[in-house]
Automatic annotation (TrEMBL):
Organism taxonomic ancestry: Bacteria, Pseudomonadati, Thermodesulfobacteriota, Candidatus Desulfofervidia, Candidatus Desulfofervidales
Name of the featured protein: HDOD domain-containing protein
Domain spans labelled HDOD: 9-202
Keywords: Coiled coil
Coiled-coil ranges from the UniProt annotation: 229-256
InterPro entries named among the record's database cross-references: HDOD, RNase_Y/CdgJ
């Protein structure tokens, strides 16, 4: 991927780099990872805030980092750390309104998916890791933020139209390509990589990740007031009536919730 896209990923904060390196060690324990995170009180507070947010919907409050690491899993934790890094980034003031809108959209998608899964288990009855789906939704448009950092003027023009074809025409690559580059560079697990990098093409991922990717595509399309791809509807095996019900529920969910802060 490197060399094929005109993108430079920002350097991760040293503390996050160190934690990711520990996570990538196959001998790392939840205790060791939690101990390293605890050296940074602000990061600790953010992770505990996220894991106890409505996104994940765990039945009991999680008060210790070790518990948070265990219930999330190492791979999902990596995704959350990257989300935190990008939410803390210093952005060009000219693109800041776009970045704030982008984060709101991603949190809306995460929140809507978590709410849908709580009442409509059929959508992901075969899913193994719903925290991964929630985290993937929180990151699914991160490539747009990276493109905007690298090409602010052109990005604002392209994303105003919210057109994937225009994105490819202007840059010769899409935010999905950047997502894949990021996932591979920072070794995110497949449960995050495929839904993040193929949410506009769910039919192209390995079958084991079909439903997760199709669900993110579905919710993303509904929130953007676009028609979901038939392939995604077929993967999720939902009828027109069920689709209408999901659309109505998402509209109600987002109209009644308070505006949620980025990670």
């Amino acid at each position: 991927m490197e060399g094929k896209i005109d993108i430079k990923l920002p350097a991760l904060r040293p503390v996050i780099q160190k934690i990711l390196a520990i996570i990538d060690n196959p001998n790392a324990s939840a205790y060791l990872v939690a101990t390293e995170i605890s050296q940074d009180p602000a990061l600790t507070a953010k992770i505990l805030g996220i894991v106890n947010s409505p996104f994940y919907g765990f039945p009991q409050r999680i008060s210790s980092l070790s518990h948070a690491v265990v219930v999330l899993g190492m791979g999902v934790l990596k995704g959350i750390l990257i989300a935190i890094h990008f939410s803390d980034e210093k952005y060009d003031p000219n693109i800041m309104p776009f970045i704030l809108t982008l984060w709101q959209h991603q949190t809306d998608c995460s929140y809507a998916i978590s709410e849908i899964l709580s009442f409509y288990n059929k959508l992901l009855k075969d899913a193994k890791n719903s925290p991964a789906i929630i985290t993937a939704a929180l990151l699914h448009d991160i490539g747009k933020a990276i493109i905007a950092q690298n090409h602010p003027k052109r990005a604002l023009s392209v994303y105003k139209a919210n057109d994937l074809e225009a994105e490819k025409e202007v840059f010769s690559f899409t935010h999905e390509d950047v997502n894949l580059y990021l996932c591979e560079k920072w070794m995110l697990p497949d449960a995050l990589k495929y839904p993040i990098s193929f949410h506009h093409r769910p039919e192209e991922v390995p079958e084991i990740f079909w439903k997760e990717t199709a669900l993110i595509h579905l919710v993303d399309a509904i929130i953007n007031e676009k028609k979901p791809k038939q392939e995604a509807i077929d993967i999720l095996q939902i009828s027109n009536k069920e689709l209408e019900e999901i659309e109505n529920r998402i509209t109600n969910i987002l109209s009644t919730k308070l505006t949620m802060k980025r990670p």
